[in-house]
Amino acid sequence: MTQRYTVRKINLMPLAKFGCLLGGVAMLLPGLVCALAGTQILAILRTFLAETETAALDPLGLGTPIELDFIQLLNLAEVQALIIRLDDQRFVVALLIILLTVLGGGLLVALTILLVGWVYNLLARLTGGIEVELQE
């Protein structure tokens, strides 16, 4: 026995919830990779700024070097302090990056699927929808 049904409208809220969950799960691994890369970049920046903070230059070769403090010269003291604070809280920064990536991906996919559902509902109203044939 075959029955025919027509899908004239799709409920958008369950579609958006599914899209949000799908996007969040899909962005978990990229979020982990971004978190690892971000924390490594913070560590590298901290080391770089610490190692290049001061330098001794002897421009004329007279044996009396001039000490230059690049952090003060380039006005990077606040940036260095921020990088040190973030690097000290590396675990929290990593969790925040993962959370933002998962939420952002979930919202992006939810909005995309929501838009597709809205377009389907609009087209179904104009064309009558998709006809599905079911057999028991």
Number of strands: 4
Number of separate structural domains: 1
What's the overall geometry? rod-shaped
The largest sheet is: 2 strands, antiparallel
| Rg (CA only) | 28 Å
Strand content: 5-15%
- Give the N-to-C terminal Cα separation: 6 Å
Oligomer: single chain
Order of helices and strands: EHHEEHHHE
Low-confidence stretches at least 5 residues in length (pLDDT < 50)?
none
Strand order of the largest sheet: 1-4
Output the structural class. Answer: alpha+beta
Helix content class: 55-70%
Structural notes for this entry:
This protein is of the alpha+beta class and 136 residues long. The protein has one domain. Helices cover 68% and strands 15% of the residues. Strand 2 (54-57) and strand 3 form a beta hairpin. The longest helix has 38 residues, at 90-127. It is rod-shaped and about 100 Å long. The mean pLDDT is 91.
Q: How would you summarize this macromolecular structure in one to three sentences?
A:
The protein is of the alpha+beta class and about 140 residues long. About 70% of the residues lie in helices and about 15% in strands. It starts with a strand and ends with a strand.
Salient structural properties:
68% helix; two-stranded antiparallel sheet; 5 helices
Topology:
Blueprint: E1 2-7, H1 12-26, H2 28-51, E2 54-57, E3 66-69, H3 70-73, H4 77-88, H5 90-127, E4 130-135
Antiparallel strand pairs: 1-4, 2-3
Helix pairs in contact: 1-5, 2-4, 2-5
